[in-house]
Amino acid sequence: MIAFYGIIFALFIIGIVLWMLLTRRLREKYAALWLVIALAVLILGVFPGLLLGLTHLLGVAVPANLLFALSTVLLIGVALHLSWELSQVEDETRRLAEEVAILRDQYESLAPRQDPGLPGPDGDERRTDPVG
Known about the structure:
Layout: H1 2-22, H2 28-46, H3 48-58, H4 63-110
Helix pairs in contact: 1-2, 2-3
Protein name: DUF2304 domain-containing protein
Organism: Microbacterium ureisolvens
Region (Disordered): 107-132
């Protein structure tokens, strides 16, 4: 009975991942990871003897212990990958903020040389008539 629920769960994960891919809510590189996980769960659900054989091969006493160990390794890998991605995004955000600051400074230094009728860098309308 537990194998049946594993198959249903794997098919559910595959369906959700495909739906998220089609609606552009999940990027392909993350979808590949989740599809591999879902396929592994599906294979273990269809062939539960594989888990028993792997348990004996690795010398683990209880198949559930092997599943928990593999799940822990998987979660550590996902957390490490997401931490790496976050670091990349932070570096890119910092670089873009610096670039915007440089461009803003260049714009503000060029703005006084422009036509006095154009709006200034702060959006205020400049006066075209002499004040006196």
